[in-house]
Amino acid sequence: MSEENFEYDLIVLGAGSGGVRASRIASSYGAKVAVIEEDRPGGTCVLRGCIPKKLMVYGSEFKKQVNDAKEYGWKVKNLEHDWDVLNASIEKELDRLASIYINILKNSGCRVITGKAHFISPSEIKVNNEILTGKKILIATGGLPYLPDIDGLKENAITSNEALKLPSLPKSIAIFGSGYIAIEFAFIFNGFGTDVDLIYRSDLPLRGFDYEIRKNLENELKNKGINLFPKSKINRVFKEDKIIIDLENNNNIRTDQLLVATGRKPNTSQLKLEDIGVELNSEGAVIVDDSSKSNINYIYAIGDVTNRINLTPVALGEGHAFADREFGGLNKYFNYEDVPCAVFSQPPVSVVGLSEEDAIDKGYEIKIFTSNFKPLKHTISGNNERSFMKLVVERKSNTVLGAHMIGSDAPEIMQSIAIAIKAKLTKQDFDLTIGIHPTAAEEFVTMRSSRD
After folding, report:
1. N or C terminus of the chain: which is more exposed, having fewer CB within 10 Å?
2. Active site residue 404
3. Domains of the chain in sequence order
């Protein structure tokens, strides 16, 4: 196909955070852009993930905050919660955000098309019986909840998508999984007063995180009254008056609701990528190089569909770099080193850089600095929640390789620590920084004794 026959400079599949950013920036460079989205714009983060889940976290924390306030002299009577009000408030906010995304695209000059799309050639996309041609095509279709192949599971379980808009609050819920989605929902439902069972195959929750963070999180789950079933596999699921979960270790769990949160898979199955020769890995992710390009010239992919680092800010960075490079002529690539992240458990977890285990695996000789304490607020509140902080330091250079925290305000604190680690600052730089007293954050600059 000759270049003048292309209808668009860029066709973007998916109007989530990464796709919208790439579209807007490409359009700002003068590209003619079409964006195809089967739902409303916003993607997983805005509509089915970060935003509604964080709002639910806020909602679930108020009961704990009221209990904490009693020893501070506050008297609250007749505390009640209206689930319908919460659902309506969240939906109103999601509508607002989706409209913002639509306006961003339209005001940028992009054409927005609602419908399901698939490839019919490396440069042609079919959507709503219309065929579009593009010089470049960017796949940004995100991911979908993954359900393991277990007898009766799919028929009797919900995913995180449905958990965000349940018509009523269940009296009991079992959650299968121990990644960040499972952990966040365990605390959310626990905060609203639901009896929570957490079933997972590993020995500790949050596989891949620092061991001490995982161990402290396990303690907080127990402290909140969440029932833990580690090293457990599900044989089958069936329903009587309640949902029955048959575990391999001869335990049976009876519950009102079963939430499966065992991870997500790339959303590629409907795109017909195999028909045009795009290489996928065993999980269905688009295999890309450092420039986000697939094995087919002019077909690119960013965000969760590539299964690299599945975080919204990463998708935004990938999309921005793609547009700057391909349409702005800039030599810009996304840097995947020292990407901070957070788990909005209660208390939250946040980390940046290497864990102790990862540093050892990479051959570093390290020193470990930790702080474990009860936050000042809880010395009066009676709440037994604790905070734990950790620095992983290279012995030879004294460079801080990683920072880890579980405790109140961990993500807010870690955002600033991430700057220090990105800048390759040393433990001496931390030590020379004056702490703000009394805060939890000051612990990161007052750790003096190492654990060798």
Report:
1. C
2. no
3. 3-145+265-328 (3.50.50.60), 153-262 (3.50.50.60), 341-451 (3.30.390.30)
